[in-house]
Amino acid sequence: MPPKFQAPTGTRDLYPREAAQRRYITEAWRSTSAVHGFEEVDGPTFEHLDLYTVKSGEGIVSELFSFQRFGGEKTYALRPEFTPTLARLFAARANALPRPTKWFSVGPYFRAERPQRGRLREFLQWNADLIGDGSPAADAEIIGVCVGLMERLGLTPAHVRVRTSNRLLIRDLSIHCGLPEEKADAWLGYLDGESKRSDAENTAYLVHRGVPLHVRENFNALLERIKTLKDPSTFSMEDFGIRLDTVDRHREMLTILRSMGILAWCQPPIDLRVVRGLAYYTGMVFEVHEATGAERAIAGGGRYDNLVELFGGPPTPAVGFGMGDVVLSLVLGDHGLMPGDEALAELAGLRPRVFVVSNGTPEADAAVPSVVAALRCSTPGHPGVHARRSYKATKNVGKLLQEAAASRAMFAVIVESGSHATVKDLRTGAQDAAPRPLSEAVTALRATAS
Amino acid sequence: MPPKFQAPTGTRDLYPREAAQRRYITEAWRSTSAVHGFEEVDGPTFEHLDLYTVKSGEGIVSELFSFQRFGGEKTYALRPEFTPTLARLFAARANALPRPTKWFSVGPYFRAERPQRGRLREFLQWNADLIGDGSPAADAEIIGVCVGLMERLGLTPAHVRVRTSNRLLIRDLSIHCGLPEEKADAWLGYLDGESKRSDAENTAYLVHRGVPLHVRENFNALLERIKTLKDPSTFSMEDFGIRLDTVDRHREMLTILRSMGILAWCQPPIDLRVVRGLAYYTGMVFEVHEATGAERAIAGGGRYDNLVELFGGPPTPAVGFGMGDVVLSLVLGDHGLMPGDEALAELAGLRPRVFVVSNGTPEADAAVPSVVAALRCSTPGHPGVHARRSYKATKNVGKLLQEAAASRAMFAVIVESGSHATVKDLRTGAQDAAPRPLSEAVTALRATAS
User: Fold this and answer.
1) Omega prior to B108 cis, within 30 of 0
2) What is the pLDDT of residues A298-310, one digit of tens each?
3) Which CATH number among 3.90.1640.10, 2.30.40.10, 3.40.50.800, 3.40.640.10 corresponds to the domain B351-447?
4) pTM of the entire structure?
5) ipTM greater than cut 0.85
6) Comparing C-alpha atoms, which of A444, A448, A442 is closest to residue A356?
7) B114 touches A at CB < 8 Å
C-alpha cells in the first residue's frame, strides 16, 4: 500500500479486537461516572486556538495541532484537553446550573508530540469535573471517582498509586524555605520539569530565573522530614514547624479519603514533587502512576478555581481530572487485566445468540432471510436477538452447524421448509425431536433474550 | 463572553440533556449493529488528505476541513466520511479477514459547509459495511440493518422512506434511452444535481457536456412507465421492454427485502432519481428520507466494489451506508419520538438509586463519605450503586429528604450515628422502624441493584 494511504503517524487503526478493548475502557469510564453521579457533556473536537493560548500555558501550546483550514481564515486547534471547553460551557450557563455541577465527558484528544510508548497523537480521554464546590471533600470526591474507575477494572493499590499534592502548600512551604514570593511561578515550573533535566540543567534553570539555590536545599530537607513522619496522612502543622491553612486543608482531604476507604491507594499520602504542568491549577493536584513507575501517568488533575471566571462566568471553584486510554491500556495489559477477546465480545453483545441454517431445500433457503430478520427485529418491548447466517454456498447441514458452533452462537435453528424449523441448543447439544412451526421457533428464541 | 471563546461555527456544545439525546442515538446504533452481527472498528479522526482526493470525487473534496498543522509539513483532512478508511483497513488485512466481513463504526465527522438545518460542520455518523459479498442478499442485509435502527427508535414506514436505486441499472436503462456509453458519468452527475438546478441550468448542463437532450425525454418517459406498474417490486425485464441483468439483480434484492418483511419501508421500491454524489459507488445505492420530504437525507449508501482494490487489496465487493445524528435527531423530534429527559437519564444510568443524608450529628456527618463510597464501590461481582449526597450546609433532615426526592433517587439512607442508619424507600414512603447497622444498610441497598 502506498504510504500516503496509511494512518497518520501517531494515530490508530482499530480492528474489532482493539475496538472491543477500547470499548471495555470507555464503558468502564461511563458506568463509573454514572455511579458517582456525574452527567455527560461534550464540546467540539476542534476549538478556536485562543481557547487554549489564554491560560493553559506553554506546556500545552507547543504540542497543539493548530491550523487554518485551506481556504478558511479562522485559526483552530484540535482539542488537546477538555478543561477550557468545560469552563466555557459552565460559564455560559453559570446562573442556571446547580452548585456543585458534576460533569464527565469521553472523546478524542490530540497532541502533536513525537509518538512513543504511552503517547500518541490521537487518544481518547475521560474527564470528570466537580464545579462550584471548593471544599477538601470535593477534592476527595474527584480522587474517589478516579479510584472507582481503577477498582472497576480490577486494579488495586498494588498496581497503581495516587500521588496527591497541592500547589498552594508547595508554595507556602517553599516561601517558608526562603523562596521570594514573586519567584513562585518559576519555582513551580522548575519542580514540574526537575526529573526530566540533568543536575547541571536544573541548577542553570534556577540561576537563570533568579531562584536562590538554598530554596532547593531547604525544600528537599523538608521533603525528607515528611518521609520520616509516622503517618504522613495525619501530619500536623507542627510537623512542618509552621502554621499554614494549606497544611490543614490537605490533611482534611486525606482524612476524608481515609473514611472513603481509599487512602491505601495514596501512598505516600502527600507527594510534593507532583506539580502538574498546566498553568491553570490553583490548589490540590494529583497524578496516578503504575506502582513501579513503569509507565507514564495514567491520570492527572487538580483544582482550577479561576478558570470559569476567565471565560466570563462568576468566580467558581472547580476540581477535576483527565485519564487517557493509551497508558491505561498498557497498565491493564502489563498486569493481565485486559479481558480476552471472547469475554470482550460477550460484554459488547457481539456473541451471536442464534445461527440460522438452511437444510438445503429451495424453500428453506428462501425462508432464511425472513427467519434472520424476524429474530433481529426490534420492537418497543424487545431489543431484537443477535442472529447470524452462513454466507457459504454449501448445502451440507453438518458443515453449517460447525460454522454455527465456530461463531459461538448459543442456538442453531435449522430451517426445514418454508414453514418449519428445528432448534438446537449448541451449548448442550439438545435438539427438537420434531420440527416446529417457524413462528413458534422464532418466538421461543426471542424469549431467551428478552 | 468574548466571541473567541464560543464554539466554532457549525459545532455543538452538548449539555447533559443534549448529550443524553446523543447517547440515546449512539446506543441504538451500537445495539442494532450487534443484533445484526456487525463488529466495531474505527480509524483516526484526521487522515492524510490524499485518502479523500483519490476517489471520493469533488462532492467531498470541496467540503473538506483540510489543513497543514502550524509548524508541520504534511497535509491532513478531518475525516468527512468513513468509507476510504474502512477500505484501507480491509485492504491491509484482506488475506486474514473472513468473507464477508461485517463492520460498523461510530464517531465524529467534519464538513466545511455553511451550517443550516440538518447540516453542521461537526456531526456523529454511524457506518455499517458488508465487505466480500457481491450478492443482492448483501445489499438487502445492509438495507436491513438501516431499517432495523429506525424500527428500534420507533420510526415506521409512515415516518420514513427508503429510496433504493442502482447506478448500473440507471446506466443500462439510459443507454437503452439513447445515452452514448462514454457520457454515462456526465449523465449520472446530471441526475445527482437535477433537483437543485433550474430548468435552464439543467438543459445547459446537458448541452455543455454533450449529452443528447432526447436521453432525458426518454428516461423520464421510462420513469413514468415504472410508476404505472401494478407492483414495481416484481417488475420484469419485459416491463422495460429490454433484457438486462441489472433489472434481475435489483428485483432479486427487492424479493429478499419482501421476505425480510421490510419492503413496506421501500415505497416506491425503485426510485431511479437517487444517484448518490460520491464517485466510488458502483451499483445499488439508497437513501432514507423523512416521508413528507421535510428534512435532508437521514442516511445514504450503496455498493462500492472497486474501493478495496484501489487501496491495495484484492478485488473485493462491498456495500455499506452512513447515517448522521443531526437529521435523525430532527426527524425523531418532528415525530415526538425522542424520549423525555427523565427516561433518557434512566437509560443512561443517571437516575440515582440512593441518596445519603446525615441526621446532623458530627458522627453522622463524618460517616457520610464512607457510606457513599461503600455504596459506589465496584467489585468484580458488583458494578456499584449510583449514590449521591447533599452538598448543602443545612442540617434539616426534612429538607435533605426533599433534596433526595428531587434527585429522583429510589432510596434515602439517613445516617443516624457513626454506626447506624435508617433506610427509606422514596417511592413508597416505607421506612425502617429502627436504625440498623451501617454495613447492613449498605449491603441491603447494594443488593437492590446487583
Assistant:
1) no
2) 999 999 999 999 9
3) 3.40.50.800
4) 0.94
5) yes
6) A442
7) no
